[in-house]
Design brief:
By secondary structure, the chain is α/β, with parallel strands linked by helices. It contains 4 helices and 6 strands.
């Protein structure tokens, strides 16, 4: 006969074995390959200096499924193509951030019966491109920025919050792509093929 302690230990062992781990949610990659590339009359495109996104409160972009800086770098790789024989285009990410702001929620009896928006996430992308021909006789610069915000309710799960973060970056990059593509076509006219 098993002792009471052995039975409890066995029961705890069985319960521990039943624990299931939830796999982290997989999000699709944010790309721009489905869009026509912006063909520049330069021999090479340089992304320098590499942008380093800030970390620490209130910056939370590094926690996103696709951090804004990663989406911005993907935009450069997918959308800009060098098709010329000479010259260079230098692309700079000036800012690619996502911040978190805690919002006020109702407390007390009213708060117990309502679900308030508890957090606001603000995404911001700013980038510039300077194109120069081989002998430096001709140059042009284009700059664009985009913002996107989204609030999250106080009862949001981590999975729900990550879905909001992914959607925020996706919308932010759509808005940025539209603004920067138009600005490049306007300001870099002599370099766009």
């Amino acid at each position: 006969m098993l002792s009471r302690g052995a039975v409890i230990a066995l029961a705890l062992l069985v319960l521990a074995a039943c624990e299931t781990t939830v796999a982290p949610r997989q999000f699709p990659e944010i790309t721009f390959r489905h869009l026509s590339p912006i063909r520049l009359d330069v021999a090479k495109i340089t992304y320098a200096p590499r942008y380093r996104a800030p970390v620490g409160t209130p910056n939370v972009g590094q926690e996103f499924p696709t951090p804004p800086v990663v989406a911005a770098e993907r935009w450069i790789a997918d959308r800009l193509v060098a098709v010329g024989a000479s010259g260079e285009a230098i692309v700079s990410i000036r800012r690619a951030t996502a911040t978190e702001t805690r919002l006020k929620v109702k407390k007390g009896v009213t708060g117990a019966f309502t679900t308030d928006q508890a957090w606001r996430y603000d995404g911001y992308i700013e980038m510039s491109i300077k194109a120069v021909d081989l002998n430096g006789q001709r140059s042009a610069t284009a700059t664009a920025a985009a913002r996107q915000s989204q609030t999250v309710p106080e009862d949001a799960s981590l999975d729900g919050r990550e879905a909001v973060w992914f959607g925020l970056v996706e919308k932010l990059m759509r808005r940025f792509d539209s603004a920067f593509a138009a600005q490049i076509r306007k300001d870099l006219t002599g370099f766009v093929k």
